[in-house]
Amino acid sequence: MSDNKKETKNWEPTIVAFFCNWCTYTAADLAGVSRLRHAANVRIIRVMCSGRVDPQFILNAYAKGADGVLIGGCHFGDCHYMEGNYKTARRFHLLKRMLQDMGIEEERCRLEWISASEGERVRTVINDMVEKVKALGPLRLPERFNEWDKEMEFIGEHNIGEEVHIHA
Ligand code: FES
């Protein structure tokens, strides 16, 4: 067994969830009251609308050590702020492309529309995401940032790239 496998054998992923107050957050509450147990790896952050979730919040979560980010919002037509969730959907597509460029696997970022009455669905989505991220292993973005910083320092110290000349 490789060192990495040994190290991650008992590892549990950390998932940060941004849930809309009016739907998914209430559904998570309902799941708790109904004793529908979901994996304990999720840190839930309540927002007033999924449209309030700035892509920067998601990048910050990864930068601070999250292995996955889950966003939960109202179904189309149910957003309390009319078009907040449409904005979320548009941003999410752009964000996914950016995460792909950064080498962050698709399964680590998920958007779901879950209404207040869908407690069972919150549980299913959380458990499914935890399983998928667990299979991928730790993201370790803070460590990766350090490695990238070192590479940049090395490039700077060795003047790599200064030989490029542009001929008009
Ligand atoms: S109020 Fe729930 S997504 Fe906008």
What does this entry look like structurally?
With 168 residues, this protein is of the alpha/beta class. It has a single domain, classed as Lumazine/riboflavin synthase (Rossmann fold, 3-Layer(aba) Sandwich), CATH 3.40.50.960. The protein is 46% helix and 14% strand. It contains six helices and four strands. It has a four-stranded parallel sheet with strand order 2-1-3-4, sandwiched between helices. Helix 4 links the parallel strand 3 and strand 4 (109-113). Helix 2 (24-33) packs across helix 5 (119-136). The radius of gyration is 19 Å and the shape is globular. The model has no long low-confidence stretch (mean pLDDT 88).
Descriptors:
168 residues, alpha/beta, Rossmann fold, 4-stranded parallel β-sheet, binds FE2/S2 (inorganic) cluster
Brief rundown of the structure:
The chain is of the alpha/beta class. The protein has helices at 3-8, 24-33, 55-63, 84-101, 119-136, 141-157, and strands at residues 15-20, 42-47, 68-73, 109-113.
Write the CATH architecture name.
3-Layer(aba) Sandwich
Instruction: Output mean pLDDT.
Output: 88
Please report the total strand number as a whole number.
4
Identify the CATH homologous superfamily.
Lumazine/riboflavin synthase
Q: Which CATH first-tier class would you pick?
A: Alpha Beta
What fraction of residues sit in β-strands? 5-15%
Reported for the largest beta sheet, the result is:
4 strands, parallel
Outline type:
globular
Which kinds of small molecule does this entry bind, naming each only once?
FE2/S2 (inorganic) cluster
Query: Could you spell the SSE succession in H and E letters?
Result: HEHEHEHEHH
